[in-house]
Design goal:
Pfam families: HATPase_c, HisKA, PAS_3, PAS_4. This is histidine kinase. GO terms for molecular function: phosphorelay sensor kinase activity. Its EC number is 2.7.13.3. InterPro entries: GAF-like_dom_sf, HATPase_C_sf, HATPase_dom, His_kinase_dom, HisK_dim/P_dom, HisK_dim/P_sf, PAC, PAS. By secondary structure, this protein is an alpha+beta fold. It has 5 domains: about 160 residues, Beta-Lactamase (2-Layer Sandwich); about 100 residues, PAS domain (Beta-Lactamase); about 100 residues, Beta-Lactamase (2-Layer Sandwich), CATH 3.30.450; about 80 residues; about 170 residues, Histidine kinase-like ATPase, C-terminal domain (Heat Shock Protein 90, 2-Layer Sandwich), CATH 3.30.565. It is about 40% helix and about 25% strand. The protein contains 17 helices and 24 strands. Strand 5 and strand 6 form a beta hairpin. The longest helix has about 55 residues. The termini are far apart.
Amino acid sequence: MSSTGRHSVHEVTGAVTRALIPSISTNEIRQRVCELFEASELYSFAWIGRYKPTKEAVVPTAFAGIGEQTLDEITLTEDSPRGELTREAVRTREIAIGQNCAVIPLVYEESLYGVLQLATDRPHGFDAVEREPLAEVGITIACAVENADSATKTESPDRTGPETETTELSIEAEQERRLYETIVSSTPDLVYAFDLDYRFIFANDALLEMWDQTYEESIGNTLRENGYEPWHAEMHEREIDRVVETKEPIRGEVAFEHAEQGRRIYDYIFAPVFNDEGDVEAIAGTTRDITERKEAEEALQRSEERFRALVNASSDVVYRMSPDWSEMHQLEGKNFIDDTDESTSDWLDKYIHPDDQERVEEAIDEAIRTKSTFELEHQVEQVDGSLGWTFSRAVPMLDDDGTIVEWIGMASDITERKEYERKLEQTNAQLKRSNKELRRFAHAASHDLQEPLRMVSSYLQLLKNRYGDDLDTEAQEFIEYAVDGADRMREMVNALLEYSRVNTYAEDFEPVDCETVLEEAREDLRVAIDERDATITSDELPTVNGDERQLVLLFQNLLDNAITYAGDDPPNIHVSAERRDDEWLFSIRDDGIGIDPDMTDDIFEVFNRLHARDEYPGTGIGLAICKRIVTAHNGRIWAESEPEEGTTFFFTIPDENGERAGSGKADGGDASH
């Protein structure tokens, strides 16, 4: 029996083979076969029909477990699942298997003796492992029918009396012998018999092949003499004694070496052979090689164990689907969606939200067609009836022929990630609105602040021009201080306005040629460059994704900083860029007064100045604007410096397109004042 309580197909076909040995008529053969298949619980009914080529039809001759309405003659031309399967089996002389029905041709030595039809109510229908044993038993049944037919034809209906009766008995015995010999020689099972001294008195061809010995070399030998290891021989001797004592058959399983195939696993049965007095006179045995079946069972068990371990270890939903996704075999919902331990065909309506069912079906069809992984985000009905989101991924399990046998899938609960994405979209939209309002406010505020500053500066100039001769030196200095303060305040307001405008979004970026950016920045600084006799050189610069206006402002502020803090000598500034991994690293190097290394992080803060205004002009906002621009471009900015040894500013910008702009410069891009 299998682990499910049902017989395996090998057990059923073995029982059918053994039952055919004493059969004496074709009718008895057919009926006995049907009853054995139906009694196995693997099949809901069995049906044998005789093929009539003149009518192109199959006529029922025996059945078991089948309703009368299904006993109709099958015409090979009819358009029905039974008709198509029967037509295929008759035409090809090979087994034809549908979802829940199989038709086995009964063929022996190229003669068709009919067909055996089997049906099952198992949810998964017929398994691939059933094909070979069912095809073999079809040959065995046909052989038995052929021998029974031959026996019937040999009998003479015209002869009567004792002599005729004796002849008929002899013919019958001879026919039975031929039938027996044909069956035991054609079966792949091992068939043998022992006497009560544990000596072999019969061995069929399959057993002799396993031993790699002839019949004469083997018969009359004990188990040990035929090469069985001591433990193996002792085990069977004990079992033979038990059969003799109890007069009941026993069954076992054993593994040992085959002469050609190596270690194999066998299922065997020892049965008593009784004499006329009812005593056991011999032991008959049959052994079947179940290595492939055991390996398949072990592989299945390991697969089940891995699946169970995966289920237990994972917080995800785990499921198994039929090859065409028509049935969900199993699902562990992890309290996210309802579990199911039974096959269900309404899983789509049960679990998938109606809005997403079409998308799910399209993705499934494509995965089946290409035998590739199924992946999709979709909505699901949760345990509590609410709507949830999941990311589902399933991979196809293929057999040796590349046919999909099932799908194993996992689904992650993403109700939280989707909610986070929704809230993030709302937040981004709110931020955009807020930034837009802040820009409008900053513009309005700067206008409102600069207007009174311009008025103060203008009236102070009028006061100086009109009453300058009447004012003493100290009063004139006070006026100059006030005008200078108003001008500096106006510059600071403008700088703060520029700082507030640095608010760039990635979707607004476009390819920007940094050669062009550098040229525009130099042009904006033309007066300062000429006044200080500055020299600015550059290597070839790349094209990056960004906001061109803000990148010009970035270069302008860094170049202006290098010119401002150059010291007494004319400034020498060099601009370069190199690609590192997935970003561009820019550098702007000068030979100016330098910075204390401990202060290089502080210089990028708003209003953070390292020198007094009477030493070096500036608002203290320029480098803060640089940092804001680089950050908006998803980059980093920093400085490396030593006092009196110059400063190098570095900043990075992600490489989105990997392109380098060709400026055509032949000498490294030297550009002087």
